[in-house]
Amino acid sequence: AREARDQRIAVIGLGRFGSSLAEELMRRGWEVLGVDDDERIVQQHSDALTHVAVADCTDAEVLRQLGVHEFTTAVVAIGTNIEASMLVTANLLDDGVPNIWAKAISRQHGRILERLGAHHVVLPEYEMGERVAHLVSGRMLDFIEFDDDFALVKTIAPDVATGVPLGVSAVRTKHGVTVVGIKRPGQDFTHATAETVVERGDVIIVTGRTQAVEAFTELR
Ligand code: ADP
């Protein structure tokens, strides 16, 4: 049997990134401890989060008093102050927090956090920049790239996929992509099957190797 997932998280740094992350997790039913060394910022979030504290988390003792070592997941959402970001990450690692996410503001910063041992490093501005590049340059309405060169894309159906059932148009063997969802204008998304006939103007969700997916969305 799987253990119930621990839905508690400590978010260190309540700037733009940390606060939006914390609030989204609250909406998803998580218990969130938000910490910032700026009292004014903490006050702004005191009603929205489960617990808040004003503390300088570069101090290992202060962090321990907050009980952060009892959390299985913590996010270091400090960017601008790279030294503080590294110290807080090191403190969490020393305390054995098993699942540490850290935000970096540059690739160098990200590399250091990885070398320190942060379990997940995110580079929001770089990652968003790459994502928007895909949206700007292609016909994709939405784009998510996973590790290992695999992507999920929302796009207007190209003509090669329309008019006949997906099983017949054989987009998977011909184009290396799988159509997983379809949305008729004015309707909700439904799962696509081999019998689904995509019509002109339908919006579809496609997965596959990034290059294959991109090439597919460029077809007409
Ligand atoms: P963003 O770009 O997401 O707004 P910032 O790096 O500007 O990120 O914000 C980081 C937040 O982390 C700020 O609110 C800042 O007060 C807080 N912070 C910085 N250093 C510490 C620290 N040592 N302990 C706790 N919070 C800190």
From TrEMBL:
GO terms for molecular function: monoatomic cation transmembrane transporter activity. Pfam families: TrkA_C (PF02080), TrkA_N (PF02254). It comes from Streptomyces marincola. SUPFAM superfamilies: NAD(P)-binding Rossmann-fold domains (SSF51735), TrkA C-terminal domain-like (SSF116726). The lineage of its organism: Bacteria, Bacillati, Actinomycetota, Actinomycetes, Kitasatosporales. InterPro entries: NAD(P)-bd_dom_sf, RCK_C, RCK_C_sf, RCK_N, Trk_Ktr_HKT_K-transport. This is Potassium transporter. Residues 138-220 form the RCK C-terminal domain. Residues 6-123 form the RCK N-terminal domain. One of its GO terms (biological process) is potassium ion transport.
